[in-house]
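Notebook entry, structure prediction.
Reason for the run: the old model in the group folder had no record of what sequence produced it. Starting over properly, with the input documented here first.
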Amino acid sequence: MNDWFLRGDYGAAPTNYIALVIGLLLAFVCGHTVAWVYMCTHTGLSYSRSYVNTLILMPVIVALVMMILANNLVLAFGLMAIFAMVRFRSILRDTLDTAYVLAVIVIGLACGTSKFTSAVIGCLATAGIMFYFWATAFGTRQRYDLIVNVQWVRPAAELGELRQLLARHSRHTQFASQRSNEGSPGIDLSYRLLLRDPARSHELIDELRALKGVARITSVHAGDESEM
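New structure, fully documented this time:
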């Protein structure tokens, strides 16, 4: 029985079962490492447990596919035909998620072609780069700390008092928009502020609420604003 099982692969070349097991285990470990890095560094709103599981499973599947092909063109074309019938409808909202998928595919290819050292180096390099992006917040273009929306019911000529209050709390004030609402008094104003002390933003909000002429106020921290 055992002899039949070990000789059950009838291909152009005998199967190296030790390399098969090592490749699949290494693909699992490297995929698990990339998935763990994704879990630690992910900051968006589109987190999915199934996606994390996919990052672990995909390199194992790819490694197995590469081992099954074993330079056999007939099997390669057969698998291409099968995969052509399978369509994936999942849409990745974050472009960085696509990079994670590509990373685990390449790791699976390396494990499946017995390039174990390359798989380990590639996994560590990918994990290091992703941690670098997460730790340094590389690519962030935060030029303000707070977005303030104010409904101003006093005459527009008296906006100087509001501007002085904003200037006292911020190093830079950017006027973003002005809109008049039909059927309601006043105008809606929006400002982007680079605060002198972001930890004291609540003091600015309290003073704005107490300012005569401010009917309504809302604020959004820059860290809460989703990237478009």
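Summary: The chain has two domains: 2-136, 146-224.
The old model has been moved to the deprecated folder.
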